[in-house]
Structures are given as C-alpha cells and as structure tokens.
Amino acid sequence: MSLERLVIFDTTLRDGEQCPGASLNRKEKLEIARKLAALKVDVIEAGFPAASPGDFDSVREIAHEIRGASIAGLARALEKDIASAAQALEKADSPRIHIFLSTSKVHRDHKLQKNKSEIIKMATDAVQFGKKFCDDIEFSPEDASRTEQDFLFEVIEAVIEAGAKTVNIPDTVGYAVPDEFGELISNIKSNVKNINKAIISVHCHNDLGMAVANSLAAVKAGARQIECTINGIGERAGNAAMEEIVMALKTRRNFFGADTRIDTKQIMPCSKLVSSLTGFFVQRNKAIVGKNAFAHESGVHQDGFLKKKNTYEIMNPKDIGLEESELVLGKHSGRNALSKKIEDLGYKLTESELSQVFKDFKILADEKKDLFEEDILSLVQKQKTLEDDLTTYKVKNIKCSFESGKTPEASVTLTMKDNEKKEATANGDGPVDAVCNAIDIITGLSCKLIDYQVMSKTKGRDAQGEVTLRVISNNREVLGKGVGVNTIEASGFAYINAINKLLFKLKTDKLESDGIAGP
User: Fold this and answer.
1) Is the Cα dihedral 486, 489, 493, 498 positive or negative?
2) 162-173 burial, b for 16+ CB within 10 Å, e for fewer?
3) What gap in Å lies between CA 236 and CA 144, rounded to an integer?
4) What is the distance of C-alpha 37 from the center of its chain?
5) Which residue, among 474, 471, 476, 518, has the nearest Cα to 497 in the 3D structure?
6) Smallest Cα–Cα separation from 358: which of 370, 385, 376, 381?
7) How many Å separate Cα 318 from the centre of its chain?
C-alpha cells in the first residue's frame, strides 16, 4: 500500500526545555540540534527568540549551522516577537515562524481579556506581519481542544486566508481523549473551507497520559504533522514522545497508512543525549527507550524469545540504535579508537575537548578493569559541562574523612581561571554536606540543595557514579552534574558545576521571561 509521509516537528529545544529544571545552555542546545538533524526530523523548533537573549542567540546559532531541516522560532502574536524570531532565523536555509495565540474562552476571558473579533484580528495581523519576513508561517490557536469548535473553525479559516501554511491544533493542557481529539480533526477537515491550503498539525500534552494516543488518533483523522519531543519531555507531564510516535507508525504502518523519514537507528543515541544534558533520567520501563524496553527476565518469556524473537518482541532493538553487544574499551586503546566511539555516540568534540577526554579516559582505565559505552558517555558529558565561559572554579582536590559517630569533615581545594588556589575545611551532617559547605566558604555563595541523585553509569562494583543535583540561590535554580568512581568526589564536581552556572547567570544577568509558555 502507498504510505503518506508525515512531518515530524521536534520541539525538544523549545517546549521540552520549558520543563522545570531542564534549562540548556547554547552549546548544549546546538549539540542536541545536530543530533536531531542526524535523526532527520523535518522541523526543529529551536526556541523562543523573544523570551531571552540566550534563547535568541541559541536559535540564531542553530539556524546558522543546521542544514537538512526547517528551523522554527516561536512567537506570540506580537510584532516584536515575530520580528525577533525573523531576525534569529535570518541564516536558516528553511526558516519557519511559529505564531501562537490563545483562543479558548477561559484564555480569552482570563488571560487575554479579548473578545472573539479581537482574537481573529490579532491572529490574522500577526500572520500577515510574519509573511513579510518568511513564507513558511505556522499558526497555533492555543488551547484549541477547549475552544468552541465554531469559533475554532473561524480562526483557522482566517489565518489560512492570511497566509498560514500550517495550522497546529494544540491540546495545550492535555485535556483531550483520543476519540474526541480525532473527531475534532475530522470536523476541522469538514468545516474549514480552505483547509486544503494548509497542513493540519497537532501538539499534544500528556497531563492525562494520552499525548501519544491523541496524536495517533489525529493522524488517523487526517493530521499530517505531529509536534513532539525526545523522551516526551516538556511542561508539566510533558509532550507526546517522538520515539513512541515514530515507532508506532513504523511498526503499525499498515494500520496508520503513514510513515516518517526519521532515521530510527538514531533514536537511542538522541534519547541518551537529551537525558544526559537535561538530567532527566528515562524511567526503566518507558516504551522504546527505557532500559527494560527490550529486556526479558521471565523464564517463560526467555524460552519463547530464544525459540523465536517475535514471540515477545514486536520491534528489532537494532532499529532504534541499540547494540546487542557492547564495545569494551581499555587502557591499551588509542586516541583514534576513542574518537570513533565518541562519534558513534553522536558527539562532535573539538581537538582540545578530545584531548582532555582522552586524558581522563586513560586515568579512568587505570582505575577500572573494563570500560563500557556508558563510561565514555560520562567522560564526554563531564567535559561538555566545563565550558570556558561558564567556568569560574575547578576542583583541584577533595579530602574527606568519615567515621561512624563522628562529624564528617572535608577539605576542598579549588583553582580559579588565573590558576590561583583557594582552600577551605568544613564540617557537615554527612560527607557530601561537608564538601558543599567547604565550597561555600571558598565561593562566598550559600546554596540550598533541593534535589540530589546518584546513578550508576556503568557495571560492576567499580562503576562510575553520575551525581545530578539541583541548587537554588537568589531565586535562581540550576542543575549540576559530576561523574567519578568516587561518589563524594563526583558530588563535589556536580556542586561546582552548579556554582559556575549560578555565577555565570549572575554575571551576565540574563533575563528569563516568566509565564511565557506557548502551545
């Protein structure tokens, strides 16, 4: 049968980054954008240029470098937002301006305090203004699933007439259910006279756990673009998960009659990259990319699987980029072998970054008998967090004593950019607390630790531990990450990583826009 190709619109860098605690810096966003391009998504929503100077710069840099995908910038239905998005997208091969405006009664009455005619005028004026800069305009009637259908049809018809090429139907608060949402798409196709001049898109949130189901119901009803994120990250309960949508379409293509151009073998590397950079770990039993997704423990399942794989597996793990066996690197491995492995993991390092990772790799190889893929990933991510423009302090040495019944004590030595060393000793409720207290003495900051997680990155008793923590200071919340065989030392690395990010934010005083969400 002939398959219709769907447009995959990835909003990991925009809606995904709005997930509380998932803030990414410019370098991290570019790293993810490169991987999304390798994944062959059709549209990358790179950010919200008017939200902050940092977001503007990220969108501009991604638009300048990334090829092979359309680059979109989000904008409210305001001329200043649209102009900002257009400026950030100037260097993109295929720019798209994504304009949104609330349409539901609850949003009209309480958020915008506008009547229906004012909403339609704002929407059409915004689309017409956007067309001055860019031919590819997408319009989203925010909270569409709770908008009166007659009014929704009127808005969609008006924006298409004004020049919108894509109309996106957001289930902004995850209120819809599949049958209802599919019917809404069918009704749009039947009641909007000029709908054949635009692509119908959907953007579903997961508040009731139905984002993927709603998106797929919309495809059956005629939607031809799906907006989604890697690992389903996003505001509140998240967005529709790209990997679940893509693999559902691939596995059940005869049912849906549609497919994508996604290179599914890049799914797992992309998932790991997003998880590592955001600090949002994927639950073990998550569909497609969870650690247990292709694991079989039950004896009955194992027996059936060994006789014929598809007795208990409906997908081939190789199709999403999983390896059935691991490449083990050791202390005798050379720089070229390490470089190739890093490239296979989806990273692009500079020569100086590779040199530092290779140096750390040799040190770790002397400490561990075997090194696994996760070890290499941890070393790369450790290096990626040490951006020069973010780094004020580096850990030189940590000494910590602990004995049952006695107060733990830690001595910490940090180095500054000019190689000046500073030392401090402090006590704490535990060894990690003592290390953090010593660092506070040196930096002069007092941070509240609001979240602390340790995750084994590799196998064995000598496994590396990845420490992820969140701290808050002066109403600024940041994520810190550190990796090492010694968990206490890794905690110090993570805390310093967070301190450096706080100092960078305070120094540059970047403005973060509160309450700007989008569809």
Assistant:
1) positive
2) bbbbbbbbbbbb
3) 18
4) 14
5) 471
6) 376
7) 23
Contacts of 494 (CB under 8 A, 6+ apart): 467, 468, 469, 480, 481, 482
The CATH class of the 390-508 domain is: alpha beta
Domain ranges in the chain are 4-278, 294-321, 335-384, 390-508
Say which amino acid occupies 133.
F
Rounded CA-CA distance 424/402 in Å is 17
Residue 368 CA to residue 56 CA, distance in Å, equals 43
Task: Give the fold, CATH level 3, of 4-278.
Answer: TIM Barrel (3.20.20)
Query: What is the C-alpha to C-alpha distance for residues 408 and 435, in angstroms, rounded to an integer?
Result: 9
Q: List strands edge to edge, sheet with 409-415.
A: 394-401, 409-415, 421-427
Helix, strand or coil for residue 104?
coil
What are the distances in angstroms from CA 339 to CA 128, 174, 333, 377, 515?
A: 49, 43, 11, 12, 42
pTM for the model: 0.77
pLDDT one digit per residue (tens) for the chain, 519 residues? 678 999 999 999 999 888 777 778 899 999 999 999 999 999 999 999 999 998 999 999 999 999 999 999 999 999 999 999 999 999 999 999 999 999 999 999 999 999 999 999 999 999 999 999 999 999 999 999 999 999 999 999 999 999 999 999 999 999 999 999 999 999 999 999 999 999 999 999 999 999 999 999 999 999 999 999 999 999 999 999 999 999 999 999 999 999 999 999 999 999 999 998 998 889 888 999 987 776 644 445 445 555 666 676 788 888 888 865 334 466 766 777 778 778 776 777 888 888 888 888 888 877 766 666 667 777 876 665 545 456 788 899 999 988 888 899 999 999 987 888 999 999 999 999 999 999 999 998 888 888 898 887 766 777 778 898 988 887 777 888 888 888 899 999 999 988 888 887 776 544 344 445 567
DSSP string, 177-236: -HHHHHHHHHHHHHH-TTGGGSEEEEEEB-TTS-HHHHHHHHHHHT--EEEEBGGG--ST
Q: Checking DSSP bridges between strand 421-427 and strand 409-415, what pairing results, if any?
A: antiparallel
